[in-house]
Amino acid sequence: MTALQIKNTKNFMNALLISEQFDTFLVEEATITTFNTFHIDGHTVKDFFTSDELEAGAPADFSLWKDIRPVCFQIIKGKKTPVSFSVLLHADNQIIEKIAATPECEVAASLIRSLVLNIRYSGGKVTCVTGSAFTTFIMDKSVDKLWDAYVRQLLTKLGLDFEEA
């Protein structure tokens, strides 16, 4: 687990809310506090879908950020910045498979329940905290190190400066 303090809040917010950079991530939850507190539960409600839609392919357990992003942007946009917000994102299966396939990783992809990126905004600052969960107890920390490196590389690739928090 690593906490990264984002140096330029505006650039990060543009990458998160306006661009498509995080669109493949899955959303467990988002909480935005402006004049009210808005809570979005990212768990997919299977009853919403028709049987034809379900037969075509069951939706993931969580919604994609690309589907939730416009709602969050609508709540946040305006002249005033939000009081706070947090978004809990999960890496998609492709990222998990990619990390598990690296030679440094000693954990099978099937044992990785989730790789998370918790994005928190408060007091004008953005902090990104990485985390992982497994289907069983694992002593090996290679997945954590690789996930931390992946997030650092992603932020660097997007031109988002950060420092260890």
Report on the architecture of this protein.
With 165 residues, the chain is of the alpha+beta class. It has one domain. The protein has helices at residues 9-17, 51-56, 65-76, 93-101, 142-157, and strands spanning 3-6, 26-33, 37-41, 63-64, 84-90, 112-122, 125-134, 162-164. The longest helix has 16 residues, at 142-157. The protein is 32% helix and 30% strand. It starts with a strand and ends with a strand. The mean pLDDT is 94. It has 5 helices and 8 strands.
Topology:
Blueprint: E1 3-6, H1 9-17, E2 26-33, E3 37-41, H2 51-56, E4 63-64, H3 65-76, E5 84-90, H4 93-101, E6 112-122, E7 125-134, H5 142-157, E8 162-164
Antiparallel strand pairs: 1-7, 1-8, 2-3, 2-4, 2-5, 5-6, 6-7
Report strand %: 25-35%
Percent helix, as a range, is 25-40%
The domain count comes to: 1
Unreliable stretches covering 5 or more consecutive residues: none
Distance between the termini: 11 Å
Q: What is the 3D form?
A: globular
Query: Using DSSP, what is the number of strands?
Result: 8
Number of helices: 5
Q: Describe the biggest sheet?
A: 8 strands, antiparallel
Radius of gyration, in Å, reads 17 Å
Task: Please provide the ordered H/E string of secondary-structure elements.
Answer: EHEEHEHEHEEHE
Structural class by secondary-structure content: alpha+beta
Mean of the pLDDT scores?
94
